[in-house]
Sequence to fold (215 residues):
Amino acid sequence: MSQHASPRISVHGDGISTFAGVTDNTLSYYFDRSSATSGFSTADGTWWMKTVQLMGGSFVGNGSAHGSYVSMTGQYPAFLPGRIRKLQDGDVTPELILVYTGINDVIDNIELEPFRRDYAKMLENLKKFFPQAEIWCGTLVKGKGPVLYEMIKPQDLDNIEVYNEIIRDCVKEAGCKLADLAAQGVTYESINLLHPNEAGMTTLANAWVKNLKGE
Fold:
């Protein structure tokens, strides 16, 4: 459970956790103009901003990037210092860091040892840059919704639990905190089995808040 009242919160993830204007436009999945499919037109509709608001906190920074991976086998890995620096705003640093990333590694069936190595490296760098912050890592969960031809198919996520076991191990070894969304049976409404729509963002936010508050 988070011990912080009105916490300063930052977010680190992939496309699920982006919104243009807060995250780099070229690295964002969600835009104001995508509201016809997502159901929201501002960052207030995202799971992470909803979580900040429900926690009575303040938003600091977001290092998320659409299409990014945990492992350097993929592209723009999550351990890169340039991404992690985005979690602060000038001299303002986070008290809580919410990490939700790895789904692209799952979809592309990235080898497990590189995934483990680079998830651990990400946590090492997060602790190095923000030693006073509580780092909360979420296990990965599946979306429910339409299957679109250009996106993933349900079978692409059949191996998700193998990666979640690695996340659990890395979090424990690093002394960080776990939001075990998968073990809690969380699923969310989505645009394409992957990216949450407005209802799905609310589902994810509520699940995160339950973990952060120890409910």
